[in-house]
Design goal:
By secondary structure, the protein is α/β, with parallel strands linked by helices. It has helices at residues 41-50, 68-71, 74-81, 115-118, 187-192, 217-228; strands spanning 9-13, 21-26, 29-33, 60-62, 84-88, 130-132, 137-138, 141-145, 154-158, 163-167, 204-207. Helix 1 packs across helix 3. It binds zinc ion (2 copies).
């Protein structure tokens, strides 16, 4: 199921610190998914320049969730390119200085730091992002809401490119697996969240952490998810969560 159109591309961006950043160009738009830890925007801009992609042509910076290893440089990249930021509605509050005070934000401790230092501890976005919802599409990518790792964790699925970005809903660091409890907002929900990916069809899977699977990724991931939780009902991306 390879793509005939050479303009269409999904590529990992080298030199980004933190999670793996991806450049995505499909029929319906151009995006960087999870540009990486604070300071990594330079590596993304270098990637674009080397491939003769005008940074002004970048339409979207899409976050699979707010964690700083994925999102720390997001606002800087938006400012440098003119791209718009997009994040799930339930993670947007974590990008603001008034972020919820809980274990995963160090109970607001970052708010006592000078702003320049805080940018290395928590993700800050001085803009109004587009708020994403389960089932909608952005740049041709369908949003799959899988809360748990963070409240607004999402996967991004492209039917036309036959590809899935899992964010941190699922990783491939030591084989397929879920993030450990210590980094999950709700570990109970995070263990169930990957089940929402069941039923999607895609050849390739791209993870926030761990190597991509380039062939028959849906079959491998579905087999893993059946072993994890054979009873769970499949939630279609066209269903709205209650
Ligand atoms: Zn991560
Ligand atoms: Zn994360």
């Amino acid at each position: 199921m390879s793509n005939a159109n050479n303009d269409h591309v999904i590529q990992p961006i080298p030199g980004v610190r933190g999670a793996q950043a991806y450049f995505y160009r499909g029929a319906d738009g151009t995006a960087v998914v999870d540009p990486g830890y604070t300071g990594s925007s330079r590596a993304v801009l270098r990637f674009l320049t080397e491939r003769r992609i005008n940074p002004k042509d970048l339409e979207w910076v899409i976050l699979t969730h707010h964690h700083i290893d994925h999102a720390g440089t997001a606002f800087a990249l938006c400012e440098a390119t003119g791209a718009r930021l997009a994040v799930h509605r339930d993670d947007a509050p974590y990008l603001r200085a008034t972020r919820p005070r809980e274990r995963m934000t160090l109970w607001g401790m970052a708010d006592w730091l000078p702003p320049r230092l805080a940018a290395y501890v928590v993700t800050c976005a001085g803009c109004e992002p587009r708020l994403l919802e389960h089932g909608e599409t952005i740049a041709g990518l369908t949003v799959v809401h899988g809360p748990g790792h963070t409240p607004g964790s999402i996967g991004l699925w492209s039917a036309t490119e036959s590809a899935l970005f899992t964010g941190d809903i699922l990783n491939n660091e030591r084989g397929l697996g879920m993030p450990p409890w210590s980094v999950n907002h709700s570990h109970k929900k995070a263990r169930l969240a990957p089940q929402r990916l069941r039923g999607l069809r895609y050849e390739r899977a791209f993870f926030g952490h761990g190597p991509a699977i380039m062939e028959a990724a849906d079959r491998r991931i579905d087999a893993f998810l059946r072993r994890q939780n054979p009873q769970t009902d499949v939630v279609s991306v066209t269903d709205r969560p209650g």
